[in-house]
Description:
heterodimer, A: alpha/beta, eight-stranded mixed β-sheet, three-stranded antiparallel β-sheet, B: alpha/beta, six-stranded mixed β-sheet, globular
Amino acid sequence: MTYMKKPAVHHSGLPANELGYTVRDYEGGMSTLCAGCGHDSITAALIQACWELDIEPHNVAKMSGIGCSSKTPAYFLSQAHGINAVHGRMPSIATGANAANQDLHFIGVSGDGDSLSIGFGQFAHAIRRNVNMLYLIENNGVYGLTKGQFSASADVGSRAKGGVVNEQPPIEPVLTALSLGCTFVARSFSGDKEQLVTLIKAGLRHRGFAMIDVISPCVAFNDHEGSTKSYAHTREFHHPAIHTDFIEPKEEIRVEYARGASMPVELHDGSTIVLRKVDVDHDPTDRARAFGYLERHREAGEIVTGLLYLEEEAADLHAHNRTAPGSLVNARPRDDQAAILEEIQTRYR
Amino acid sequence: MERVNDFTLKVATANGTGSASANALLMKAIFRMGAPVMGKNYFPSNIQGLPTWYEIRVTESGDLTRSGEVHFMVAMNAQTFAQDHAEVASGGYLLYDSSWPRVRELNRDDIQVIGVPLAEMVNLEFAEVRTRILMKNIAYVGALAGLLDLDMAVIEASLKETFGERKAKLVEANMRAAELGYSYTKEHYECPLPLRVRRTNLTEGHIVINGNTTAALGAMFAGATVGAWYPITPSTSLMDAFKGFCERYRRNDDGEREFLVLQAEDELAAIGMVMGAGWMGARAFTPTSGPGISLMNEFISFGYYTEIPAVLFDIQRVGPSTGMPTRTQQADLMECAYAGHGDTRHLCLYPADPGEAFELTVSAFDLAEHFQTPVFVVSDLDIGMNEWMVPALKWDERYRPDRGKLLSADELKQLPGRFGRYLDPDNDGIPFRTLPGVHPAGAFFTRGSGHSKHGSYTEDAAEYQEVMDRLKRKFDTARSHVPRPVIECVHDAGGGGKKTAGKPRPTRCGIVTLGSCDVAVREARKTLRAGGTELDYCRVRAFPFNEQVERFLREHDTVFVVEQNRDAQFRNMLLMETGVDRRKLVSILHYNGLPIASSHVEEAVLTYLDQGQVA
């Protein structure tokens, strides 16, 4: 993971959030990704979302696996601890870290190779445990760092830079997450910052595993004609299914939504997600119907975006465990342990 | 055969018939009569129907190891009858179920055969099929009580503890079955036999327990709060025990858990979870066996290089590959010490019995945080799953976890200059550590890729090498910090119980070993001494090997190295890690899956001294 220190330039007049921080306080090191890489736009959206949510930067734990996408946690929130796991194993790091301290915000950044190939098992099981975290898949359909091999998310018929056409069906993260019982399933596009920032904010506030599959074109190896993960292709077939507004508890809901067309969902911390349907045949709270809707549009070659499925009441890892509040990092000091050890041993005498 | 409180009894049954509880009852009764006792379970990797054996050694002299001989066989399994019959030492006894007489097979005239019609009697007494199977086992315990002079009141008391008030009916039924066997032997044989148990008081202050249970206790008492695992024999009972104890003793007043156990999807995830929790600052561990360690290698290398505390238990079983999951071996010594790609080496602790498994588990958590690195507790199936008599465990209320060089929010606030994760201000190789969520000044990026002493990414030759050299320095610091060997030299041998003697006196022959070989080597040494062969003793308890180990090797001309694997892994580690002359080290190896017997060590030493080589 390459890292360059960013020059500390102070722009006076940048707006501050409730904690008194400007957006600059949420930045990280200088990106060393290729100019125009979709991943950098996602990094910018993350910075914007954390700033808007007034998150204390050092209360975030950011983590990733291996690959271009996994370099990005070095490019935001330099005041937060970060960890770059081995390839495909970030979900287990996140699970253990979250088990140890449920009080922090967890942001995991992964890629299509990291999550859908080498780490497919861990990705699935983190969803199954409903680990409370934001999980981004920066999806470009190729292995960038090893120079352009197809990944498991490459679409049938998509053409590689060298001309080879992919014939194997893709592993589709949204449908996969949905079938695994993921409680927050979204898709977005690195080129749609407004939607992405909203989805990231909602995902951070969601209690449980919030997966956002972000189509993030690789300008070096997969942005040519014939690729289905290029900027041009994504813009053309990008189909927002649902419009999402995120409203924090401090804000009043000022907009009156037309009954039927919009759906406010209150989150655990009191904030509200308001979903406004663009397509009337999509219901983001009905898993079976969402499945049918997504599959139909996938067959039509459309890239449906938005918050596609949400289940707010599911228990997360700690609720299942009935963990005591707070962190397990500093085990409570105990006395009378000698007596307890005595008591335990009576059965072995 | 006259053997009072000094014999080995072996029970041959089929697994899944309930014989395990009968054998435990038998062992407990002898223990409660004050006679030191060893129990070894040789069980199949199966749930029902395959042959299984339980070996009990009654040893007033306190030699809690396999002697290598069987003096009394309880042959309950038709499938293995011939083999079991042949195994009895000359002059010994064989008890079998004479409901089906075996006149033709019983063709030895140097053993005494005791027939008891167990099935016949039990079938008359009990109607239900499953009950009959279970009670036949209790009936042989009763028969043995008559023959060996066991106290039926002690047996009844144990049954009452097992079943409690609520299942008083079961106590009554079990006692009826025991009485069947007891009365029969009393009536038909001259009881007690010359081979028998005599009440004494040598087990006071002791418990009978297995090493997975004590390791679990060690983890709980050391303050472990996150455990992650993937079930694998023979480590599974460790996490089962940890969960059980925590359910009882690690909940708050509202019944909420102050621990979290994750059953992972595989060992790759289990170790990842431990790394995540350790990075976050919790004391975290994973119990596994050899195949699990193989899978964890990539993350172990990561943990070494990124300096994340973690505790791994390797309850070794027979390899290579799936091997024999229910048999014991010490064949992961090198795998643990050097796990992972690249230049890696790890702190390893080698408990000799369940008592030490408790102590060294606590040490493992302290060492992991002190040195910010994965630490292995290298146990084995024999220690982990067999029942051992050990002194009762003790806890020092003054214990405080050694969290190592961990910076608090206040310390970070006052930090002059920028925090550097991998700096070495104390010149001991140990850097300062910060935890997520504590203070922004402590933030850094943990990466398994090349990093400088500040933690930033590097591909710079000098920056990379600086960190690698410092890691080596850290390992060198650990050398004098890890538990010392137990050394006993000839002049203080036989004094019993004296650990880590002061100054070893140079003598010609020494014997060095680790882990569960300890008891066998101790008995062998005692027997050899009685025959005029004196050996100094060094039991290594940790890797890296301390200076005391090196000195022991230096001061002896011939050193037997006893271990339970084929390739002399321990000897090879001693050769690699110390300056010892390879010609001095004579291997005594045992690797067939059974725990090493003292007779194996004795014979090997004598053969070598006689013929200049080990057979």
